[in-house]
C-alpha cells in the first residue's frame, strides 16, 4: 500500500470490502482507517500484540473485535522490562479478556 499514490490508496481502501494491514500499518495509515470506518477489526496472533497497538485500531464505528490466537503461547514483547513489570505490559488484551472470563470460542478441530 505504501507504493500506491495517496489519492489512489484512499480510493482503494474506501472501495474495498476487506482491508488487511499490520498494526504498524494501521498506525501509519490511521487517516485511511478513520475514513473507511471499519465495523469489524480482526487481529491475528492477538496474544502477541501489545494492547497499545490494538486500541488505536478500534475506531468509533467498530462493532466487533475478533482476536485470534493462543493466549497460552507467546506473549507481547516489551523492550523495557521495568515498565513491563510495573504495568503488566506482557499481558495482551486477548489474555486479559480470557482471564476476565469474557466470551471465548475455542477451535477444537482443524481441517485442511
Automatic annotation (TrEMBL):
Residue stretches making up the DNA2/NAM7 helicase helicase domain: 8-78
GO molecular function term, any single one: helicase activity
GO cellular component: nuclear RNA-directed RNA polymerase complex
GO process terms (BP): regulatory ncRNA-mediated heterochromatin formation
Identification of the protein by name: DNA2/NAM7 helicase helicase domain-containing protein
